[in-house]
Amino acid sequence: MAEKKSQGVKWLPFILILVIAAGLWQLTPPSGLSAPAWHSAIIFVATIASIVAKVLPIGAVGIIGITVFALAYAAGDKTASGAITTALSELNSSLIWLIVVAFMIARGFIKTGLGRRIALQMIRLLGKRTLGLAYGLAFADLILSPAMPSNTARCGGVIYPIADSLARSFDSHPEDESRSKIGTFLITCIGNINDVTAALFMTGYTGNLLAVKLAANAGVTLSWGSWFMAALLPCLVSLLIVPLLVYWLTRPEIKHTPDARIWHAKNWRKWAVWRAASG
């Protein structure tokens, strides 16, 4: 296996972002903003711009951003120790580490193939009709969501590849008119269902954890159970209605999918062989 080369610095966007940030730093803060708030905003925006421009890997950009924040005394601290303490203060936040753990768990589901196995079994059980395929993928997303807090990884890393492969097995491709056979319906459906499952569980989406923290700051305590009970009815209704609504709006040309079980058996065998070969 060829060794993956490390990414170097993209100097042009790096210099451009640096020059713009340095120029803004010299300006008088807008009315209503203190100098520390203005400087913090500049570093924040420059960090986000560097991530978007892929100046360096995201971890390196984050470390550089924290370092610059401390060295520049951006928060208005008077001492070096105070500046460092402020720069590192959020690293002890439970929210930050919950998000980190969420992505680790999501990666585990993808690497072990557990998410794929669950989705394939749902297709086997419900895949006689096109609408059944959508419900199968929806229920797979639902099962994964409480323990897989990254909805992006859940949909993009587990559900979408299966939906895309299913659509292509029925000769439905996104780049031409054949997408109306079944592909448009499946992809539209899983995208909307992913939002529903993300809202149902507190741990279904990392942004929910931020909402819980903001609520706690306002004096409102939300437990996992109270979140679930509040979201249960609207999300359950949405889970049942969304596939039907998308089916009616997209009108897939293929209504019956008896070959889905054949597709399931073939992909299950391929997955088993791959797992055995990879140890």
From TrEMBL:
The UniProt record lists the keyword ATP-binding: no
Domain of life: Bacteria
Membrane topology: Multi-pass membrane protein
Annotated transmembrane regions: 9-27, 33-53, 58-75, 95-114, 126-144, 227-249
Pfam families: Na_sulph_symp
GO MF annotation: an example: transmembrane transporter activity
GO CC annotations, alphabetized: membrane
InterPro entries reported for this sequence: CitT-rel, SLC13A/DASS
Main location: membrane
Location within or outside the cell: Membrane
UniProt keyword list: Membrane, Transmembrane, Transmembrane helix
Similarity annotation: Belongs to the SLC13A/DASS transporter (TC 2.A.47) family. DIT1 subfamily.
Protein name (Swiss-Prot/TrEMBL): Putative cation transporter
The organism of origin for this protein: Salmonella enterica subsp. arizonae
